[in-house]
Amino acid sequence: MDSFSNLPEPLLVTIISFLPFKEAARTSLLCKRWRHLWRSTQTIDFNARFFINVDASREVQRQVFLDFVRQWIANYQQATISKFCLALSQPRNSQMVVENCITFSLARNVKHLVLDFSDPTWNEDDFEGPADPTSYDLPLSVYGHEQVLESLTLFSCKFNPSGFKNFGLLKQVSLGWVEVGACTFKALLVNCGCLESLSLKHCWSMENFLRVCGRGLKLKTLVVYKCRFYYPCFAVEAPNLSCLRYTGTLPRFDISRNNRGLDEVELDFGLESVCSCSMADRLYQLFFEVFPMRALTVCTYILQVVSMGEDFIGMEPSFPVTHLTLKTAMHDYEQVGIRYFLNSCPHLETLEIQLGPGRIFHDEYEAPYTGLDPHELWIRHPVVFLCVTHTLREVEIKGFKGTPNEIYVLNYLVTYGRVMEKITVITSGEMSNRGNPTVYRNIAKQALMIESASQNLLFTVL
């Protein structure tokens, strides 16, 4: 605390404003001087989920939250705020408070506005129909907030895209749990001339063909997360696009290439229900559409299905990927897929393996390579890929539980990673039939006894 004791309060408030709202509140416990400083933060996050109390009814929790919001607004003294977030389900039941919050934020020239009226109990994997047809309507006062708003997030909140033409500085738009048709989407792109980041989460009523294009489109980041398409097909013509993240069923992409390629591609097809050789062919086509990319994240579905195609050894031409993230359960059926990407990324420098539960798609189909033994693949008769011996310098494994396949892959990387500089194993905090976190750490540390191919390897177990 001594390093902060001589700082003026305005500077302390600026520092606190960089903290999440809950963390800012905790600074009130540091000392007497800090007790009320957090109440001047310029990053305000009113989230009803922070007020969950298992010993109180939902109605009581909601009332406590609303009273807190009213008191905060009444006592706030700052003239401007940077970010304002209101997360409250069933907003029509508390319309006066909602309107006061929006008025409060607009009067202080808020730059980043988040209105989340979704319900945490909604099933995000339910694609049968709209989540809530009576979502809240964005007040007209927001459309008049010209030349100030830089980012806008609307969840379960209806809007008029033609009103967005007033937002001359709007660069980020995130929409969720709301109907977004083709006309609405087109109007959004036309009216937001400075838009650089667009995120669609749990949206519905989208037609078969979604066009992401427009004259002078400045879009750099596109996120589509579990949206309801009749048949997902995208035409993307965005010369500045550098980041594409998609979660849903396996789509068809038609991406107009730019000269420098994409910086980041994240693909998760965990909602897909079909697992076949034809889907593997579609994966290859999709890879060509997003090619080239520098960072790639793939899911367990891809790791399983890519091995069902004719070219299961690797991509031609190879990926120019330098950072690869594998979301995997380390199931036997994923091992060929993991090898596929190591072989397809000869310039790989960093590898991140995120371990977690994953759906096994081959259960309802005839799985390829059922006779393959992962121990054979990684330990007894391994194929040592170019990236492992020449470029791969850093590996991070998250959620390690010490399963045999996890151990095989870890041992392989230690044994053959000639230029490896750092391997970090972050053990899982969950209990399982294999033991507890202490057991997981002890298993991971056994890799220290393996002779490393690299003389400069730093091996860390957390």
What's the SSE blueprint?
Blueprint: H1 9-17, H2 21-26, E1 43-47, H3 58-75, E2 83-87, H4 95-107, E3 112-116, E4 136-137, H5 140-143, E5 151-155, E6 157-158, E7 172-176, H6 182-191, E8 197-201, E9 209-213, E10 221-225, E11 233-237, E12 243-247, E13 252-255, E14 262-268, H7 277-290, E15 293-298, H8 300-305, E16 323-328, H9 335-344, E17 350-355, H10 374-380, H11 386-390, E18 394-400, H12 404-416, E19 422-427, H13 437-445, E20 458-461
Parallel strand pairs: 1-2, 2-3, 3-5, 4-6, 5-7, 7-8, 8-10, 9-11, 10-12, 11-13, 12-14, 14-15, 15-16, 16-17, 17-18, 18-19, 19-20
Helix pairs in contact: 10-12
Pfam families: F-box, LRR_At1g61320_AtMIF1
Domain F-box: 1-54
Protein name: F-box domain-containing protein
Question: Care to describe what's here?
Answer:
By secondary structure, this protein is α/β, with parallel strands linked by helices. Helices cover 27% and strands 22% of the residues. It is built from 13 helices and 20 strands. It has helices at residues 9-17, 21-26, 58-75, 95-107, 140-143, 182-191, 277-290, 300-305, 335-344, 374-380, 386-390, 404-416, 437-445; strands at 43-47, 83-87, 112-116, 136-137, 151-155, 157-158, 172-176, 197-201, 209-213, 221-225, 233-237, 243-247, 252-255, 262-268, 293-298, 323-328, 350-355, 394-400, 422-427, 458-461. The strands form 3 sheets. Strands 1-2-3-5-7-8-10-12-14-15-16-17-18-19-20 form a 15-stranded parallel beta sheet. A 3-stranded parallel beta sheet has the order 9-11-13. It has a two-stranded parallel ribbon with strand order 4-6. The longest helix has 18 residues, at 58-75.
